Amino acid sequence: MSLRDRDKKHLWHPLTQHKIHPDALPIQKAEGVWLYDDQDKKYIDGIASWYTAMYGHCHPYILEKVQGQMQQLDQIVFAGFTHKPAVELSEKLMEILPVNQEKIFFSDNGSTANEVGIKMALQYFFNQGKKKNTIIAFEDGFHGDTFGAMSASGLSVYNGPFEDFFIKVVRIPTPNASNIEEVKKQLTNILSEHEVAVFIYEPLVQGANAMHMFEAKYLESVLQICKENDVLLLADEVMTGFGKTGTNFASDQMDCKPDIISLSKSLTAGFVPMAVTSCTQEVYDAFLDDSVGKAFFHAHTYSANPIACSVAVAGIELLASVEIQENIQKIIQSHQDFDTKIRNHSKVKSTRQLGVIYALDLNIEMDRYGEKRYQIFDHFMQNGVVLRPLGNTVYILPPFVITEEELEIVYDTIYQLLEKIL
Ligand SMILES: *Cc1c(COP(=O)(O)O)cnc(C)c1O
């Protein structure tokens, strides 16, 4: 039996209606920006496998570090024990995180990193005898699929069956030049009507919301109001973290720094799952007490797994390298050149870019999971490029190691879509 058929027998894939789309494509190998399927056809990974493999797949430097770590120490309980990879990772993160961050808490994925951040914020106030029960979030944000993270997420296509069970979240629109005064007014009203503990937000780019972007200066004024009203700021940098927006973190592009930051995805460079939630000394200090009761009682079995930590350390070393930093600048420039070429095309409604993230909205009506979407996806796949359209948005978020020639293949495939398919 083929791998495809064996897959169908027992496997249940995420975000998949198996009745309509029963087939999954087997990938047998990956190297750099290239994925190889079971027929040895190769594809450029134009979205870095959901923004994880930013240094390319199976990077030899990371591989070497992981292999060494695997032979040394595989796993150890992180309550009461510690190890060098975790300590090193905390130090490496301090070198690149916004300066006010001081402490690192581990979990397993982006959703849990946000759960941890939300719980930290709620308990931060609880420990001080303040009962704050409300979270503010952006409309159409995405923070993950566990209950707290899902409550904070505004994308209803995922939330429908669960909405009756959510924690209390009040939403505001993402700010822009035309609505900023209205958003500020809404926010002020919410703050006077509710006991708000934390504002959770994807800074500058909402990934799952079709790479919706908004400007730093408008976000900054929203953050400022929260700060002035004793509301903690939780920046969900699960997608935006580690260089993708042109700075190490999107939060670097604003003066107002978050109290808590959640990170995952490219933290571990596509090798293994892991996440961290960082916070300020002030947040951490609210959990210190002579009684055990004020401690943060949240744990995941694989917290700070040494192998995952060693991957993350190696990944941050690569991010800091001259080669990767230069490549980021090259990709930014290439995207701009491509944009000049296509932004006035009749099939293009609008385009946007931040760092290595480039998105264009097609000038056609489309359902998020409609047939047209699969037709466009198939066009890309036939041409050896993995891009996953979100509604009528096509976006590129390539590994930092992609070459100019490889980028040209991606651009050309999009150009062919505009010229021949649509
Ligand atoms: C992917 C993502 C998450 C969820 O991360 P998982 O690892 O899939 O649980 C949360 N927030 C943002 C901004 C994301 O892009």
TrEMBL record:
It comes from the Bacteria. GO terms for molecular function: adenosylmethionine-8-amino-7-oxononanoate transaminase activity. Pyridoxal 5'-phosphate binds at residues 110-111, 236, 300-301. The record marks 15 as: Participates in the substrate recognition with KAPA and in a stacking interaction with the adenine ring of SAM. It is found in: Cytoplasm. The keyword Transferase applies. CDD domains: OAT_like (cd00610). Its EC number is 2.6.1.62. Keywords: Aminotransferase, Biotin biosynthesis, Cytoplasm, Pyridoxal phosphate, S-adenosyl-L-methionine, Transferase. The modification N6-(pyridoxal phosphate)lysine is found at residue 265. It catalyses: (8S)-8-amino-7-oxononanoate + S-adenosyl-L-methionine = S-adenosyl-4-methylsulfanyl-2-oxobutanoate + (7R,8S)-7,8-diammoniononanoate. Pathway: Cofactor biosynthesis; biotin biosynthesis; 7,8-diaminononanoate from 8-amino-7-oxononanoate (SAM route): step 1/1. InterPro entries: Aminotrans_3, BioA, PyrdxlP-dep_Trfase, PyrdxlP-dep_Trfase_major, PyrdxlP-dep_Trfase_small. Substrate binds at residues 50, 265, 388. The keyword S-adenosyl-L-methionine applies. Coiled coil: none annotated. Gene3D superfamilies: Aspartate Aminotransferase, domain 1, Type I PLP-dependent aspartate aminotransferase-like (Major domain). Its cofactor is pyridoxal 5'-phosphate. Homodimer. Belongs to the class-III pyridoxal-phosphate-dependent aminotransferase family. BioA subfamily. NCBIfam families: bioA. Catalyzes the transfer of the alpha-amino group from S-adenosyl-L-methionine (SAM) to 7-keto-8-aminopelargonic acid (KAPA) to form 7,8-diaminopelargonic acid (DAPA). It is the only aminotransferase known to utilize SAM as an amino donor. This is Adenosylmethionine-8-amino-7-oxononanoate aminotransferase. It comes from Aquimarina hainanensis. The gene is bioA.
